[in-house]
Amino acid sequence: METLVAICLGISLSAASGFRIFVPPLAMSIASLYGNLELAPGFAWVGTYPALIAFAIATVLEIAAYYLPVVDNLIDTLEVPTSLVVGTLIAASILGDLEPLVQWSIAVIGGGGTAGIVEGFTTVTRFASTGLTGGLGNPLLSTMEVISSTVLSILALLLPALAAILVLGILWFGLRKLLRALHRHRTA
Description:
It is globular and about 50 Å long. The model has no long low-confidence stretch (mean pLDDT 92). It has helices at 2-19, 23-33, 49-65, 71-94, 100-133, 138-158, 160-187. The protein is mainly α and 188 residues long. The N and C termini lie far apart (48 Å). It has 7 helices and no strands. It has one domain. Helix 2 runs parallel beside helix 6, helix 4 (71-94) runs antiparallel to helix 5 and helix 5 (100-133) crosses helix 7.
């Protein structure tokens, strides 16, 4: 049962990193410092004060950059591959009690894959928003993404199974929208 909870937690935090890369590691650092999150061996550094400060600075800079026109689209482009790595590391840091092959397989597929899919959705949404509103709608989108990442991170730490169900809903909704858009594009 602990392994299932750890998988739910890792995948949910990875999904949250698809909205904002540094919010989940910041939440993990805080939770670890307060003794509410046990990290895998090799990832204990996440629960230190220097890491907390680094994640807090990175989070503020990332959030602020998304409110700058043109920069927001550039950051989205850079964060697609970065989210794969961060999502993988987040999941691996939670799944420390598993055999390394199993730990890293779940981390890459579940954590990195989920983070990459969510980041891909946000990137497509931002490009669409830029095209439809000339970028005027992007600050609202950025605000929604920060809130989503924060709420999902907190929910994952408090109720991992519920957070995982929410992530499945997000993935289902996003994939459905994407498939509809692809279908419309092919028939047009």
